[in-house]
TrEMBL record:
This is Glycosyltransferase. It comes from Caballeronia sordidicola (Burkholderia sordidicola). GO terms for biological process: lipopolysaccharide biosynthetic process. The keyword Transferase applies. InterPro entries: Glyco_trans_1, Glyco_trans_4-like_N, GlycosylTfrase_MSMEG0565. Pfam families: Glyco_transf_4, Glycos_transf_1. Residues 188-350 form the Glycosyl transferase family domain.
Amino acid sequence: MTHTVMRIALTTHSVNPRGGVVHALELASALVDEGQDVTLFAPAVAGETLFREPPCRVILATIEGSQHNTVALVDARLRALKTSVKACDPHSFDVLHAQDSISGNALAELTAEGEIAGFVRTVHHLDHFDNPRLAAWQTRAWRDADRVLCVSEVWTREMRDTYGIEAATVPNGVDLNRYSTQRTPHDERLRQRHGIDGRGPVVLAVGGIEARKNTLGLLDAFAELVKHHPHARLVIAGGASLLDHDAYARAFMERVAKYGLSQAVSVAGPLDDADMPALFRCVDVLAMVSLREGFGLVVLEALACGTPVVASNIAPFTEYLDNSLCCWATPTEPASIADALARVIDGRHRTDFNRAVPALLDRMSWQASARKHLDIYSALLASRSLPTL
């Protein structure tokens, strides 16, 4: 389907490498490749820049003041985005598309004030908030949208069955120019920097130390793995989150010490964007054993780099993976995770990198995602132009 050129505004909540931000950047790039006019809005404090510059117009919304708690932090980013979009002649955009609750609320307020005709919202996943204001913000960001999209069928069903919202599923993709099996001199430098010396297998987790990521469960499994692989290493990358995970992170580090694994566990934190493909190639297995996930984008990235994956046997992973693409684990059972890691490391489970992985990566492209987005955008614009009775 051929699309006319649209002026599209994509909004995201951060300049840091979280899944939703990566989605926004990759979608922006793919839409530009489709000939579209794209502007990306992201909130940033003074001196911050996007972790990766997309080939489109980028407007960083300046965050004012200091924030001492999560509510204040969210509010400041919401205000910054609203002010920034409003200053850019928002009526001139054909489509405004929020990737998260923070920017979704900015667009919801602009809609209520008549500054824009409406907006699209992608729900990657929803969180539980005890704070009523955070919970209300999360609800408003999808409730007030003209069109809701989800990156997996499990969340499309959740939006329909729990909230009565008919969402459309538009999966993530993977950039095969960025993520590949092609080794580079940077790989060896990264090995040296993180002490990956080849003495034992290296397990990688991406996304930081969070309850949703099941990092404590993974640690318990790793403690079992070390009994049979005494030189094994666990590297945890990422974790640039706006939410407060400090208590969980402290409990994790206390358990690391209790197990006596301080030398075996490395918390790398957020890495430079160029480091991630190299890091995937430097490890033996990616552990993606989340308890709840929107899609699990790093699974595709790891597979594209030739790295086997241990994944939770829950949706959304079960929607696009099978036994030829990953080794399954029950995320609530550390013994199951440990067994899956051992099966991959010992070669008892082999990923089909010859046929199954290339077929998956060919199917899950950002270009396909962008074209589906454009179909949805076009249908939305057509519905707005229909005469009303």
